[in-house]
């Protein structure tokens, strides 16, 4: 039985109050709905998929559970704080398991690097690869901690929709050399190219080019060390399911298999104000507050297509830089649970190039490179329920170009060929005999991200987190275009990745006014 706060329970389940609609049941939308419910709104969540979670949902095929998107949970306290706001206990609803090691990086020369929470263990790994870089690594960790407290705790967890919010902290950006890239900062601290990769690749997990995004994102190294890396038993989809249950417990409603066609507005003397949403069926849902967890680009150029926009025009969005695309191969293997003992839950398998491959992905969007690097997820190491007994479930994720070009990759023609390339690469470098063990298979391409998740240009993580597409320069949590409209998710402040998506909803909780209970009679 889940423990609840009785004082909050009465408030959560009351039948009257102002209405809120949340577009999209991704993790950001669900978190926003929970916070609005805690503030006294009657919340309706609308999503085109059949299950909550968005990119964090899962599908089953031939007895295998495939976690479709995020697999790593960091900064677990933000989930615990979210649940507490709702009068619930996160650890009663979700079982988080710490990862040790976090993940293993496999380099082209066959050397491996185990990323872990224990600082002495990490220093030993650094010293094993490059003893002369140990002092530089220690300095890098100090740099990372400074950027965590500023970038995540100060900027990421508060609104950034006013210019004065940015102006107040510009000097800190300068002091922390936010103009340098993540890779440039790593390269200034360590000389070994393998360590430079290990300390700089993290922006790829949120759609950023490590050679161009701001060095503020080195904060991830401290974040992982301080709070650990976790896996939710049942996958991130289990967190989404638990969030949906909280929303329903609060008296909210989830409308799945339901698509929003437009955000409805009324024109005032000076600006537009939202009145609710119109569904693809033609039905309208009236609301005092609308929160969009749809991609910021999709929200503005499609859901607000009939609104004259001064900042996020179609032209502005078309000229923006979008994150790379993703090719994800989901597959199951038969009778392999006791095979490949050196392959753990999370593995990063590097191809022969780092900078050259990243450049091809972000700047040569009309072609596929002949080589690749992969993130490989093997959840059955930790959670046997993801596959039939004795079998394994995997996914292999390859960053690829998005569709933001005049001549994008034709995935209908290249999808299976690329999948075979992924299989061959893993079979040669990591999973010998893989081809004979695959028992079920499917893959997603940028075209699937465009069509399934309504992601502009098939981008995996919405707008790329360049310095001039971050903080105040990113779509605001309070819409600049329409009063009463708020934004959460990867495409808005503070950005992509589970921690940022959840804290985008925390910001919503700070800027949406409390509901005023309706008077009886």
Report on the structure:
There is one protein chain. Helix 9 (182-189) crosses helix 10. The strands form five sheets. A seven-stranded mixed beta sheet has the order 8-7-16-17-18-15-19. The chain is an alpha/beta fold. The protein is 34% helix and 19% strand. Strand 11 and strand 12 (272-279) form a beta hairpin. The model is unreliable at 1-15 (pLDDT under 50). The protein has helices spanning 6-13, 27-38, 77-85, 90-93, 119-129, 134-155, 163-167, 170-175, 182-189, 193-200, 219-227, 236-249, 296-303, 314-319, 355-363, 411-429, 446-452, 498-511; strands spanning 19-23, 42-46, 58-61, 64-67, 73-74, 96-98, 103-106, 112-115, 229-232, 253-255, 260-267, 272-279, 284-286, 289-292, 325-333, 346-349, 374-377, 392-400, 438-444, 482-483, 485-487. The chain has 18 helices and 21 strands.
Strand content: 15-25%
Query: What is the approximate shape?
Result: globular
Distance between the termini: 36 Å
Structural class category: alpha/beta
Provide a concise account of the structure shown.
This protein is an alpha/beta fold and 521 residues long. The protein has helices at 6-13, 27-38, 77-85, 90-93, 119-129, 134-155, 163-167, 170-175, 182-189, 193-200, 219-227, 236-249, 296-303, 314-319, 355-363, 411-429, 446-452, 498-511; strands at 19-23, 42-46, 58-61, 64-67, 73-74, 96-98, 103-106, 112-115, 229-232, 253-255, 260-267, 272-279, 284-286, 289-292, 325-333, 346-349, 374-377, 392-400, 438-444, 482-483, 485-487.
């Amino acid at each position: 039985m889940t423990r609840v706060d009785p004082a909050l329970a009465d408030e959560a389940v009351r039948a009257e109050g102002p209405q809120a609609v949340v577009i999209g049941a991704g993790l950001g939308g669900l978190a926003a709905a929970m916070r609005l419910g805690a503030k006294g709104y009657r919340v309706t969540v609308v999503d085109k998929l059949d299950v909550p979670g968005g990119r964090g949902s899962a599908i089953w095929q031939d007895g295998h559970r495939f976690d479709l998107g995020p697999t790593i949970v960091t900064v677990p306290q933000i989930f615990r704080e979210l649940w507490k706001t709702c009068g619930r206990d996160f650890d009663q609803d979700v079982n988080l398991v710490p990862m040790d090691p976090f993940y293993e990086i496999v380099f082209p020369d066959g050397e491996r690097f185990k990323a872990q929470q224990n600082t002495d263990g990490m220093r030993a790994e650094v010293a094993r690869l490059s003893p002369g870089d140990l002092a530089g690594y220690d300095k890098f960790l100090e740099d990372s901690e400074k950027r965590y407290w500023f970038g995540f705790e100060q900027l990421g967890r508060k609104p950034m929709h006013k210019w004065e919010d940015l102006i107040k902290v510009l000097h800190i950006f300068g002091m922390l050399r936010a103009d340098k890239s993540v890779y440039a900062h790593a390269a200034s601290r360590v000389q070994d190219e393998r360590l430079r990769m290990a300390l700089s690749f993290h922006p790829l997990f949120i759609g950023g080019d490590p050679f161009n995004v701001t060095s503020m994102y080195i904060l991830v190294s401290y974040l992982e060390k301080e709070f650990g890396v976790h896996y939710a038993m049942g996958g991130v989809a289990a967190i989404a399911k638990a969030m949906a249950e909280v929303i329903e417990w609060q008296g909210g409603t989830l409308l799945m298999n339901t698509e929003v066609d437009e955000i409805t507005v009324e024109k005032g003397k000076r600006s537009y104000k939202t009145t609710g949403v119109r569904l693809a069926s033609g039905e309208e849902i009236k609301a005092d507050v609308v929160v969009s967890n749809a991609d910021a680009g999709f929200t503005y150029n499609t859901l607000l297509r009939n609104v004259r926009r001064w900042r996020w025009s179609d032209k502005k969005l078309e000229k923006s830089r979008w994150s790379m695309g993703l090719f994800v191969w989901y597959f199951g293997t038969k009778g392999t649970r006791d095979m490949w003992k050196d392959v753990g839950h999370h593995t990063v398998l590097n191809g022969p190039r780092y900078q050259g491959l990243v450049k091809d992905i972000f700047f040569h969007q009309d072609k596929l490179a002949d080589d690749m690097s992969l993130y490989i997820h093997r959840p059955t190491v930790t959670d046997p329920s993801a596959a039939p007994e004795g079998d394994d479930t995997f996914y292999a994720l390859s960053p690829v170009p998005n569709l933001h070009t005049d001549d994008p990759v034709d995935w209908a023609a290249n999808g299976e060929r690329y999948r075979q390339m992924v299989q061959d690469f893993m079979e040669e470098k990591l999973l010998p005999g893989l081809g004979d063990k695959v028992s079920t298979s499917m893959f997603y391409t940028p075209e699937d991200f465009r069509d399934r998740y309504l992601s502009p240009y098939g981008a995996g993580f919405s707008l790329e987190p360049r310095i001039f597409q971050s903080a105040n320069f990113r779509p605001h949590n309070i819409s600049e275009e329409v009063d009463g409209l708020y934004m959460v998710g990867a495409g808005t402040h503070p950005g992509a990745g589970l921690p940022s998506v959840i804290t985008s909803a925390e910001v919503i909780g700070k800027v949406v006014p409390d509901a005023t209970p309706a008077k009886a009679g």
